[in-house]
Design brief:
Blueprint: E1 3-7, E2 11-16, E3 22-27, E4 32-33, E5 49-50, E6 61-64, E7 67-70, E8 84-88, E9 92-98, H1 101-104, E10 111-119, E11 126-135, E12 141-143, E13 145-147, E14 150-151, E15 163-165, E16 171-174, E17 189-192, E18 197-199, H2 200-203, E19 207-211, E20 217-221, E21 227-232, E22 238-242, E23 250-256, E24 275-277, E25 282-290
Antiparallel strand pairs: 1-2, 2-3, 3-4, 5-13, 6-7, 8-9, 9-10, 10-11, 11-25, 12-24, 13-23, 14-23, 15-18, 15-20, 16-17, 19-22, 20-21, 21-25, 22-23
Length: 293
């Protein structure tokens, strides 16, 4: 596994060629790691990129017209593939994954996915992320894409003592997923916030899914309400908050697309949240992570 280092006076960031995944954010100001360690006994990822699916397809299969394809893993395949590094400047690294004979057996489209991580020269605690999804064929292409970073609380603070911040929001509606990982959008719950804050102990299930809620920013805080991380995700239509019950981390996940509804039997174009690109069209998506402490 080959890795690339981005560094400034505050952060030392490591990005892997495998999945173009952010695997470490060492915060020099507090001398602590900010990203989950990917302990395989708990969750063997750091901050995977979810593509070309977010979540599961029913029974590991999906249909495009009359053709059926297998997608046995949830969240697609990009997280488990080697990307090609296009540039590495020390403050910016770019990777690309392109369609191949291997990917076309399980996802028939001719695609290109470019991933860029870069540091903010004016704000040393902020990491910028840029994705470009491109359809290289003439026909319509369906896809989903999402982020899945796992954040560690500051030294001395347990996950259960964290608050979930939704700046400028007073109320939100969420639904969750069943034990098999399929969405339950018909089972919505109202979340009333205390000046934008939801307390972990009182409110959070294993997974929150906020769809169509216009969440532009989400963060994590300690008891004093001061954020220790903020995810700026204004372009995304869906946000998920997830934490493995036995892990010490919390994931803040901006999504285009999501897991199948429980019992879904339709084709890919009917799948909730799926995105599409016309022939030779591309979509650019930008978001950022602010490591505040």
């Amino acid at each position: 596994m080959y890795t690339h280092i981005l560094e400034n006076e505050k952060l030392r960031i490591t990005v892997s060629d495998r999945g173009a995944e952010l695997i470490s954010v060492f915060d020099k100001s507090v001398k602590k790691e900010r990203i989950w360690s990917a302990d395989p006994a708990i969750w063997n990822r750091h901050a995977p990129i979810l593509f070309p699916f977010v979540g599961k397809v029913t029974d590991g299969k999906y249909r495009i017209g009359d053709m059926e394809y297998s997608m046995k893993t949830q969240h697609g395949f990009a997280r488990d593939m080697d990307f090609v590094c296009l540039e590495d400047t020390g403050s910016r690294v770019s990777h690309r994954l392109s369609a191949s004979d291997v990917t076309k057996k399980i996802y028939p489209y001719d695609f290109s996915l470019t991933v860029q991580h870069s540091l903010n020269s004016e704000h040393p605690g902020e990491l910028h992320i840029r994705w470009i999804v491109e359809n290289l064929d003439d026909s319509l292409m369906f896809y989903a894409i999402g982020g899945h970073p796992g954040f560690l609380p500051p030294e001395g603070l347990e996950k259960e003592g964290c608050g979930i911040l939704f700046p400028e929001k007073e109320e939100l509606t969420y639904y969750s997923a069943n034990k098999a990982g399929y969405a339950l959008p018909g089972d919505k719950h109202r979340l009333v916030l205390d000046r934008g804050l939801a307390k972990w102990q009182e409110d959070i299930p294993d997974t929150w899914i906020f769809e169509g809620q216009d969440v532009k920013c989400v963060g994590l805080s300690g008891p004093d309400r001061s954020p220790f991380v903020l995810v700026h995700c204004a372009e995304f239509p869906i946000l998920a908050v997830w934490a493995n019950p036995i892990g010490p981390f919390i994931c803040l996940e901006p999504w285009f697309g999501r897991t199948d509804d429980e019992g879904f039997q339709g084709t890919l174009e009917d799948k909730a949240g799926m995105q599409s690109l016309k022939g030779h069209e591309k979509k650019e998506i930008r978001w950022s992570i602010d490591f505040c402490v």
